[in-house]
Amino acid sequence: MKNRILNFFICAAVLTTLSLTSCNTDNDNSEDSVNPGNTDRWITLSGAMMGTNPGDGNGGTMVYSVSVADAKNPEKSINVYDDGFHVRSQRTARLQSSEDGNTLFNIAYTGPNGGEFSKYSVNGGKNHAESDVKVNIAAYATTAPRWVKLFDGDKTGIAVNLSGIKVTTDENKVYKHSRGLSTVLALHLKDVLINNYKQYEIPFSAEEEVLGHYISRLDGPVLNKAGNKLIIGIGKGKHNPATGLADATAYTKIGAKSVVVDYPSLENPTIISSTISVGNTNGYRSFNAFLGEDGNIYQATQNDNGGSRILKINQNNQYDNSYVFSLDAALGITGTYVDAWRYAGNGIGYILYTHDNANGQGFIARVDLNTQKATIVDIPYDADLDFGQYQGFVVNGDDVYIAITPVGKDGNIYIINSKTNVVTKGAKLINKPGNHYIGVF
């Protein structure tokens, strides 16, 4: 298939010197510091159905949309499973929404439609009208791509994939390196077509590769302030050079890394490394990095030594190793693990996490990126609350909407004011055995 390359119209983000801002506007890749919110938008709830085991989310995805007023009303009950719309995907759909909440974007994950990009007009309740135009990217990014929507006014989605990892040896059968094929693909969200894609092997340093380190996953792309680079998170793997198999020894982890590619050409992949973190930076089901109006990118880590961290990438597209933000230290606990997070503006973000000895139970923290402080959000917690598959947040003005249901139990939408941290209980979410709500869009 020929590449269909359209012009990208990317405006530079507005720099405000005193605070960060959310990446969430129709005109550029950061958000104005004044965001009054939209009381007319739809709020769409997403629920994952059980496949084999409770909470695995492998049975498909249902969605249901309500008004802002209904989302905030604790007397309103929402049952996405009995009353909602089934979004096409064999397993958990990878959903994104437009800035105004009127459109859902989806890439089906695995199955006969795996890799198919489609979009739906949101009309309230279960009424979601699917566009007649679709494009399948499976030939380039497999049937299970990871993707996010850039904050460029609903113009572009970026899908990434790492496949075909293989071990290479020399003529004497001595281990050389392990590499996979990396794909970076740009989708035109309005016209539903492929703008551009590139595929390449991306090596670590020779010193790292000979020890067996390699890229195991890509995810969490974010556009820099200048609009000329994409930063893509990396999950790291390691093979034992003696066997070529997964390394189960107590090896020393290498620094956290990201891939940087030119935008919009998607060419010239390079790797940047952190000296203060050894975690992964790819995240899982949600955004893992955000641009602030100070021009810096803030990126969460997972599987880090000493718990998750927030890293800073500066306007030179390099890690700022003078910025140290340990969630363990900020929260006074150990083994923090960021499942998902969302930047809300003015230096404030909300993190869904678990930690040592919590048995996977999820918690919410408010983080201040300017002061590197964090506090737990006061909501009713439950041992079965699991944010491992969480995908979507809505930031509407100062309000952050989060769907909170323990696996198999009813819950609620919670609305948190990002300036005051005041929490309001919203609509009740009716659950089913083994299921859980995994996002607000």
Automatic annotation (TrEMBL):
<feature type="signal peptide">
    <location>
        <begin position="1"/>
        <end position="24"/>
    </location>
</feature>
<keyword id="KW-0732">Signal</keyword>
<protein>
    <recommendedName>
        <fullName>DUF4374 domain-containing protein</fullName>
    </recommendedName>
</protein>
